[in-house]
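Quick log. Single chain, no ligands specified.
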Amino acid sequence: MTMHVCVLGAGIVGLATAWELHRSGFDVTVVDRAAPGSGASGGNGAQLSYSYVQPLADPSIWAQLPKLLLSPRSPLKLRPRLDPLQWRWALQFLAACNSRTSRETTGALLTLADESRQGFEQMRAEIEPDCDFSASGKLVLYGSAPALAGAKAQLELQRGMGSRQRLVGTDECIAIEPALESYRGRIAGAVHTPSECAADCLKVCIALVDALKARGVRFMLDTEAAGFDWRGKQVAAVRTSRGPIEADAFVMALGTASHRLGRALGAYLPVYPLKGYSITVDVDQAGTAAPTVNVTDSARKVVFARIGSRLRVAGMAELVGNDARIPASRIESLAAATRALFPEASRLAEMRPWTGMRPATPTGLPIIGRVGPAPDNMIFNTGHGALGFTLAFGSAQRVRAALAAWSANFLPTPRR
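-> predicted structure:
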């Protein structure tokens, strides 16, 4: 009898997991309280950063702390709350802001990202999703010589781990992306990674759902997971707003909600919302005023990704709890960044503002596999932070391997 796996979460991480499990012969049900991709996946930065990663937990954070706590304009923001999880997470984050942890995290993320690239390309070849995919590379801009020197150190670290990228001067940067010409005076240099990609994550989610439904995967949407029923030392069913759903094994890919449900299983998951924002504006697809190369402004912590006839502009990282409000000041900040770098790219008539709660761990490494005292038939796949789209398919492959190993000595329970 085929093993039945219930995947909790229909964001890009949960859907990639369902995809890999179904392809490997598992019987799959996907549960989510909302529409696929409607959480942190829907309006994300759209960049697929397979070869250039820099953990948020970095030694440079220490010098930025006063600005993080006090400046209303800081792209990184911490608003202390009466929330034990926030304080515990923040202390663990600061403890991770050292060179050794940053170096180890970089290596682990690059390895996982390379696995994910292969999985994503395999999926694209199989179902050919209409997702505005491009492989035009990425430029990470730096506005000063000291900032560029710091970038060089990270580049050398990543080069030793197999990444192919190089520093380019102002002229070459603009030759790579002519739309940056008017911003020339603010660019000291950039890191160019020619292999980086972009795509509309929400469109990928929708295409995955369509493909999975056609292949027999069951979806229970508008269905909230509330807790679990036990059978001995294992999870027998997830309790939902539509009744219990039984399965032989479960995968928790619920983003920021994973912490709460993990506690119900006796597991501490250091996952906290890292709030981000985006706007999506229309551009002239035939013109040259909007970028075709992915661009990251390191000073503003803002990313630009071309997705078809639209430009996705995303940024900010706020530790403010589960606050889904969209302050006008944050959207204006993204609009101002767009006007500064690409003044003729769009009239910004319709900006489609969005916010998402990216599930972040203190180190930046996602939690993939079993966790401590939780039942052994619960596999976790959460905590990807701002790299959920980039790491989704590699994470899914690791979940598949973990379940395959676990199921080798397991006899599935007959379905009722």
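The first strand starts at residue 4 and ends at 8.
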